[in-house]
Amino acid sequence: xxxxxxxxxxxxxxxxxxxxxxxxxxxxxxxxxxxxxxxxxxxxxxxxxxxxxxxxxxxxxxxxxxxxxxxxxxxxxxxxxxxxxxxxxxxxxxxxxxxxxxxxxxxxxxxxxxxxxxxxxxxxxxxxxxxxxxxxxxxxxxxxxxxxxxxxxxxxxxxxxxxxxxxxxxxxxxxxxxxxxxxxxxxxxxxxxxxxxxxxxxxxxxxxxxxxxxxxxxxxxxxxxxxxxxxxxxxxxxxxxxxxxxxxxxxxxxxxxxxxxxxxxxxxxxxxxxxxxxxxxxxxxxxxxxxxxxxxxxxxxxxxxxxxxxxxxxxxxxxxxxxxxxxxxxxxxxxxxxxxxxxxxxxxxxxxxxxxxxxxxxxxxxxxxxxxxxxxxxxxxxxxxxxxxxxxxxxxxxxxxxxxxxxxxxxxxxxxxxxxxxxxxxxxxxxxxxxxxxxxxxxxxxxxxxxxxxxxxxxxxxxxxxxxxxxxxxxxxxxxxxxxxxxxxxxxxxxxxxxxxxxxxxxxxxxxxxxxxxxxxxxxxxxxxxxxxxxxxxxxxxxxxxxxxxxxxxxxxxxxxxxxxxxxxxxxxxxxxxxxxxxxxxxxxxxxxxxxxxxxxxxxxxxxxxxxxxxxxxxxxxxxxxxxxxxxxxxxxxxxxxxxxxxxxxxxxxxxxxxxxxxxxxxxxxxxxxxxxxxxxxxxxxxxxxxxxxxxxxxxxxxxxxxxxxxxxxxxxxxxxxxxxxxxxxxxxxxxxxxxxxxxxxxxxxxxxxxxxxxxxxxxxxxxxxxxxxxxxxxxxxxxxxxxxxxxxxxxxxxxxxxxxxxxxxxxxxxxxxxxxxxxxxxxxxxxxxxxxxxxxxxxxxxxxxxxxxxxxxxxxxxxxxxxxxxxxxxxxxxxxxxxxxxxxxxxxxxxxxxxxxxxxxxxxxxxxxxxxxxxxxxxxxxxxxxxxxxxxxxxxxxxxxxxxxxxxxxxxxxxxxxxxxxxxxxxxxxxxxxxxxxxxxxxxxxxxxxxxxxxxxxxxxxxxxxxxxxxxxxxxxxxxxxxxxxxxxxxxxxxxxxxxxxxxxxxxxxxxxxxxxxxxxxxxxxxxxxxxxxxxxxxxxxxxxxxxxxxxxxxxxxxxxxxxxxxxxxxxxxxxxxxxxxxxxxxxxxxxxxxxxxxxxxxxxxxxxxxxxxxxxxxxxxxxxxxxxxxxxxxxxxxxxxxxxxxxxxxxxxxxxxxxxxxxxxxxxxxxxxxxxxxxxxxxxxxxxxxxxxxxxxxxxxxxxxxxxxxxxxxxxxxxxxxxxxxxxxxxxxxxxxxxxxxxxxxxxxxxxxxxxxxxxxxxxxxxxxxxxxxxxxxxxxxxxxxxxxxxxxxxxxxxxxxxxxxxxxxxxxxxxxxxxxxxxxxxxxxxxxxxxxxxxxxxxxxxxxxxxxxxxxxxxxxxxxxxxxxxxxxxxxxxxxxxxxxxxxxxxxxxxxxxxxxxxxxxxxxxxxxxxxxxxxxxxxxxxxxxxxxxxxxxxxxxxxxxxxxxxxxxxxxxxxxxxxxxxxxxxxxxxxxxxxxxxxxxxxxxxxxxxxxxxxxxxxxxxxxxxxxxxxxxxxxxxxxxxxxxxxxxxxxxxxxxxxxxxxxxxxxxxxxx
Length: 1605
Known about the structure:
single chain; mainly beta; 5-stranded mixed sheet; 30% strand
């Protein structure tokens, strides 16, 4: 056990150790961290790139996340990783936008050749016998994303934004390897008669080349020795000898030792030697000292030897002829083309860094110092280009974007001119129009260089901006001004003071008002005056309104009494006010009255005063008003009598002067102008809280107008209604003109310019914002032009040839050493110097002339120095003169000179003609039309500069024009010549007409008809009618009715009280029976009615039909004049009002009161009546009624654009009767909000086109088929039913047919050996200048070489080596004919469009000794069209002695070698397998073992022969049979084979069971089943009879496979 002290020590140690352990672990982890950093245990791991954001195009940015990973897989803090290796977190990218689809596209190449799919080991599979028709392969193609404009390659992600990437590989089939196919051999060549050894040969031609790894062609030649009857005796062989010339050696200069040595070598021509002839020269001095690149003339030699027909060499003397071949000749020492050193590389074409686009290019060049001569090396490439890498230090490329100016003013006249070309401005126009703006390309402004905006915004070439350009024109609308729509006038008010707060004087005004129903629009919209007044006297702003009670008698029931009066003070608006405001004291509370007693006369109450009868035509006379009352009951005896009839009417004079209305008239508001006080205070204060350019004032004139008179003094009109003359307004901001900076000057040409043409450069600037509101005006010059300075004129360079040098022969020493002849004559060479000079005869570099001409004049030509034996002639004479007749010819002559006149060979006129004849030049030319007529071309229209475009249909798209047809001009010999010989323009012209389209023409709108309803809502109509129908594609008509009219209907509203019935007072009641003494009782009374127009101030009557006939008042009515004793009641009062709900439980009441009691106690009639409120009988409800929206109504001056759609508001009673709107207004019904909305009538815009571009260059420089074209573009497409754009936006015409001049190579001549019989020679062909019409064919005609210019071809094209085989040489045959065109097919179907055809050359061996030196056979293949599919099948002949011939045949019947599958080749020899080793057996014709005659075959179950069994009865011939077995086997006995075939042989020769064995087995099996079934039926026991036989089970037979069943 531990003590306590030990335990404490242990605890202390443990604590200390624990702290130490923690400290140690921290140190270790830190050290590990440092070690991890030091040993690069942490690596950066970036995440995937995010989406490209930012601006469209190369200015996008994409970012990604970064992590710091430990190698063990856990992440750490970013500081653990090495900052120097930190991958970028952001990168610039190309952000794809939708409009980029017009700029980028996928470009795919053609599919490459099909290649075999590699095997698992990565190698192509070997050719095997398993290939039947084709092998699987892969073919690839290049797919890349390109920019359409300059075909540069960009990253694929751009195109993948619009379309998936096309596949880059696909499966394909490679046909099986095809061996070379050759034809059958020809017949053997014939052997010549003779005793020497000879060879005969036969040849065949290649039909199809080896394809897809097939076998090469076999030998195309077979040779064999001829069968000679006997050998030639020794030394008597018959040989032929030929002089063989070798090839010319290379041109060389004479060596010094050759020049200084003398003498001639002895030539040793031993019979078998092929020695080179070496020459020693006598003294030879060079004729000139060679300078740098001077032409050096050397010499060249060739061997000559005699060859025998068996290929051996012989002594030269055996081949000697009259003239020995030339063995030495002078030549030009070959010199290679000499060029200058490469120039330094040009700067890289890419001067800035762009995103995802192609690299730049740089180039260098070199110049020709001297052209190749004498077969020297031709000039190499003179220009070299290479891609250059863009350095990272380059600045980013400028980015460009489309900019636009402000829209210019809206031009309505453009559309109006379209519809009527004769339209001209007659007044303000409004509605739809067209406005344009300038579109230009400018450099995008980076955020960091905003201060340089003016410099950056200069316009640049439009090709620098990508994407579609913004539209340069659009439809616009000038708002049409419409006047106010106002309500009808209210009734005249009371006569009031002008200012009720300060009433002065006794003059006042009566007023009437109207209010605005719809505000005016536009600057020219006008509102009429809303208040009219007429002066009056005794004005009162406040007046007492008195209501009377009924008459109450003072004493009793009748007699004098009083009425109670109730007075209320009201203002001029009809509102109750305090009584203290009324000026007079209130009227008395009681007023005296009288109630008739029983016998008194009873009168009615006074009627209302009639309207004033004053007439405006007689303004000074006062009018009259009347009122009346009638006798209701007569007086009785003692009663108060009735007054006379005069007392029943009262008159009073009146003078309303309602026809002398006064009102204030205003002029339009003036412009907003600065007010110094307001501007000083409010320079920065906005109107309606918005920042503006200050507040100004507007003023207008106001004056007083009297109707029918005109302007009167201002004080005549009430000042209280005077409109304001000054109002504040927002000052429009001054707009200075803003223009772009001038564009860069157009570049002056860097290269020189031909002729004296002055080249100008220009620059321009564009107005972005026009000046307005007094701003700074635009500058006058927007376009500047100046002449380019320091433009050099292109010097014209030409070749200047010197004279030919004398003819230089082979040096004499060389000639004597070789030829042994010293006469200086024969073939030689002469040279000349050709220099390049400018127009001013200054020497220039060769390169300058080579640029301007096709070739260079020859520096060397062959020449001849005549020998003594040659024919000599005088120079040719001049040609004889030509007559004017074109059919004549001209000639020139020469003569023999000296001894040549006596030489016989010189007399041969075929070899040496003395006269030359040629046709005279003829100036007669024949023209004939060529090609089709061009389109009808109209004269150019004028372009109006302020509009910048023309309108289709402005008269320049149709009318009279000219069409052209080219002519081909030729001379009398049919040679094409310049068309100017036949016609100045090269065309024939004729007038043509493009029919003008005529639009449908309608008349102007008629005036609106009257409203169909006199009260409430109706319809009014206006119409147009057809004037001209459209034709030639003009704009169609709208839908017309049967009368060829188009109508427009709008709702209309008629005030219901406009026409009203006016009635006069009833006449006195006329009693029916006037004979009655009391003259009381029933009668009739009448009155006058008339229809009045309330709007007519005169109050004149109108036609009664204008008033509502349903509401016509009665003109007569029955009445009664009560007798004295009868009770008299007053007229009924009005019915009380029903509630708006028209509740039938609520009642309506009216009352009347007693006027006179009856004489007796008879009761009076009722004094009150009650009736229920019934809907549509005595109670009505009202509601607002809205029409449908009208069609879009335009101003009279507009044809399209913004208009107004209206709907009308009316008031309708619940029974459907229209009533005045005031009826609904009185009931405070909810009014619909909008009765008018803005609308848009689509503008009919004809197609607008640009002008024609200039004619393009001719598509061909000469000859037939050249075309030139011009185009125009659609500026604004058709809108609405406008005239459509023409389909033909391009016009073409044939170019003038100018003659083409071309150098044409002739055919190769035969091989020229220059004196030898065989060997090496050369062929030449000529170069001739021909004229043609675009294609060099048989119709090309030779002309003077000068018309083609310098010869472009080198000597190597005009001269080539050739050889003529000698007898005994092994040589190549001529080319075989081209084989028929054949396609590569699989199962009879081709997978290629081009076929191929072949030809071959093979060698012919003439001597066995030379067969080792035979050349290789040659095969040529070329593509062809129109090929066929051929298949190859094996053919075989009949068997003959177990042998047959097998061959391959093509499907067109040609027997070939190759083409058929070797694996499918049938056997040509037949053998038995296994071999026939049984006694007495042999192999039969059928390929199976059979037995000899006298023996029968015993076969095994597998069909093979088991043994041969002797046929009984053939013992006596045993010995013979044994003998026959060894010697005379009946192998060839056909009858034996036939009978052998009768033996039962169950197996075929190949071991398969024959068909008849299956048939016999099947038949036997069926017979056995039949027998079993029959025996079962016969042997079974019969069962007892049952009424219902049980169901029988089917019989099932089982077969266990035993044969003995």
